[in-house]
């Protein structure tokens, strides 16, 4: 999983709740003293953070890095970029101009953090699985349901059999009879939505290829999935809900996956998009009833 320039401190801050206690000690030290951490050895950081060398190594892997040297490189890039844009919540009696600036900042930071943790190789693997799939299922609840609908709309234009059923019973019946090679995409920003987790288990049991689409970090949902797609995991706030901070990055990842899919056979993709556009344009010319 690659690290974008100037993104590692934000990633550590956002994934903190998912770390073990010993890893959180390391995380707090890095966030408080990134300049010192950048030039330390594993043993020095373990001592200063009141943890162990093993905890430092596990911490690096928990935040998506290959090891301690990559952490030092990422910290160097972060510090070279200066202060991150940041996430902001709304305050009492805030004027509209300030709200606009804060929302823009949140969107920019969320997209930057998501790009910083995108695994290009994983995107390509998922794209090829979707390309070979006879049927695609996508499911999410609440704001994640909008992402499932976006997936369905995009891949329908590519000529795929794709469904984003809201009724969990209908979805389960459909997956039970799905042909070999079909794909199930379970969408849950928190990675803790009970219905998504149960459907993921059922999809695996039924022999479907499974893809989890969650906020960054290891979870039960990601552990039982064949492939994992991650977005930035923004810190919680009183007014700025998870749906607000995540939806832009979720749609961004879907767009990246869509274009990666289209590039597998670009001429065929263009042909299918042209035909669907022509079909919908003809509807505009239908006489009113």
TrEMBL record:
<dbReference type="InterPro" id="IPR046348">
    <property type="entry name" value="SIS_dom_sf"/>
</dbReference>
<dbReference type="Pfam" id="PF01380">
    <property type="entry name" value="SIS"/>
</dbReference>
<dbReference type="GO" id="GO:0003677">
    <property type="term" value="F:DNA binding"/>
</dbReference>
<dbReference type="Pfam" id="PF01418">
    <property type="entry name" value="HTH_6"/>
</dbReference>
<keyword id="KW-0804">Transcription</keyword>
<feature type="domain" description="HTH rpiR-type">
    <location>
        <begin position="6"/>
        <end position="82"/>
    </location>
</feature>
<dbReference type="GO" id="GO:0003700">
    <property type="term" value="F:DNA-binding transcription factor activity"/>
</dbReference>
<dbReference type="GO" id="GO:1901135">
    <property type="term" value="P:carbohydrate derivative metabolic process"/>
</dbReference>
<keyword id="KW-0238">DNA-binding</keyword>
<dbReference type="InterPro" id="IPR001347">
    <property type="entry name" value="SIS_dom"/>
</dbReference>
<dbReference type="InterPro" id="IPR009057">
    <property type="entry name" value="Homeodomain-like_sf"/>
</dbReference>
<dbReference type="InterPro" id="IPR036388">
    <property type="entry name" value="WH-like_DNA-bd_sf"/>
</dbReference>
<protein>
    <submittedName>
        <fullName>Transcriptional regulator, RpiR family</fullName>
    </submittedName>
</protein>
<dbReference type="InterPro" id="IPR047640">
    <property type="entry name" value="RpiR-like"/>
</dbReference>
<feature type="domain" description="SIS">
    <location>
        <begin position="126"/>
        <end position="267"/>
    </location>
</feature>
<dbReference type="InterPro" id="IPR000281">
    <property type="entry name" value="HTH_RpiR"/>
</dbReference>
<dbReference type="GO" id="GO:0097367">
    <property type="term" value="F:carbohydrate derivative binding"/>
</dbReference>
<keyword id="KW-0805">Transcription regulation</keyword>
<dbReference type="InterPro" id="IPR035472">
    <property type="entry name" value="RpiR-like_SIS"/>
</dbReference>
């Amino acid at each position: 999983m690659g690290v974008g320039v100037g993104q590692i401190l934000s990633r550590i801050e956002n994934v903190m709740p998912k770390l073990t206690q010993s890893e959180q000690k390391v995380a707090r030290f890095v966030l408080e003293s990134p300049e010192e951490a950048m030039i330390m050895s594993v043993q020095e950081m373990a001592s200063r953070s009141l943890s162990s060398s093993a905890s430092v190594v596990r911490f690096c892997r928990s935040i998506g890095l290959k090891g301690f040297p990559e952490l030092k490189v990422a910290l160097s890039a972060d510090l070279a970029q200066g202060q991150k844009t940041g996430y902001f919540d709304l305050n009492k009696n805030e004027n509209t101009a300030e709200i606009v600036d804060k929302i823009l900042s949140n969107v920019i930071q969320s997209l930057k953090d998501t790009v910083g943790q995108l695994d290009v190789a994983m995107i390509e693997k998922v794209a090829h699985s979707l390309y070979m799939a006879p049927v695609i299922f996508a499911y999410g609840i609440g704001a994640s349901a909008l992402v499932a609908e976006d997936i369905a709309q995009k891949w329908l234009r590519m000529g795929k059999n794709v469904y984003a059923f809201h009724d969990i019973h209908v979805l389960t019946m459909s997956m039970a009879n799905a042909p070999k090679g079909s794909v199930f995409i379970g969408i849950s920003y928190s990675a803790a939505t009970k219905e998504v987790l149960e459907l993921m288990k059922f999809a695996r049991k039924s022999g479907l290829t499974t893809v989890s689409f969650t906020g960054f970090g290891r979870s039960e949902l990601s552990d039982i999935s064949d492939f994992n797609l991650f977005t930035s995991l923004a810190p919680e706030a009183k007014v700025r809900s998870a749906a607000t901070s995540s939806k832009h990055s979720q749609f961004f990842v879907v767009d990246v996956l869509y274009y990666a899919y289209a590039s597998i056979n670009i001429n065929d993709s263009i042909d299918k998009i042209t035909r669907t556009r022509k079909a919908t344009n003809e509807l505009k010319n239908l006489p009113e009833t």
